[in-house]
Here is the input.
Amino acid sequence: MRKTYLFAGASSAIAVETAKLLQAEGHTVIGLSTKPDHAIYDEWHQVEGYDFGKFPALTQAIDGLVYFPGTINLKPFARLSEADFNRDLSINALGAVAFAQAYLGNLKQSEHASIVFISTVAVGTGLPFHASISLAKGALEGLTKALAAELAPAIRVNCIAPSLVNTPLGEKFINTPEKTEQMQKRNPLRKVGEAIDVAQAVAFLLSEKSAWISGQIMAVDGGMGTIKN
Here is the structure.
């Protein structure tokens, strides 16, 4: 069955890889982004920001939402400002709230609807210099479970928690061979993730292959959150 999916932060590397996977299966993918048009999408809307009241109105049924926007703002706790915390919380959590609220009516038109959020391994693991992003993504994981309970059984809600992924957002951490090697050594599978690794998990959680999965935080992190070696 051909389905329609809507992505926020659609210009991100993971979003693009996910869109390709879904389109290869015959589905329609609509992109929302603060950036200009990305050619691969079936429909594109440029937005001012991921804020309440700033999402375009859509009338069609939507089978799945994915919220991709995120930040990597790593600083010692003492150096994090109120503005840092507010920005990370706004982009990572409050934007997701606004996005889900904006299209809840469209999701209710679908017989098999799904929402997917993107968190980080840092929430469940505890990593230095991650106070702001962990606070924001921790709120997102709480939202995932609350919405999964509230929207069941009609709409499933899940979240993916990746480790470092080789995307423009994480590039500064692996932009030399030495940095890449260091990050690989920290991971139990000795690997920095690729966009496709997360994209495949997103596509799975959107699909009916995951029809009995909701309220979960899925680790896609090479074992970093659970394995020590």
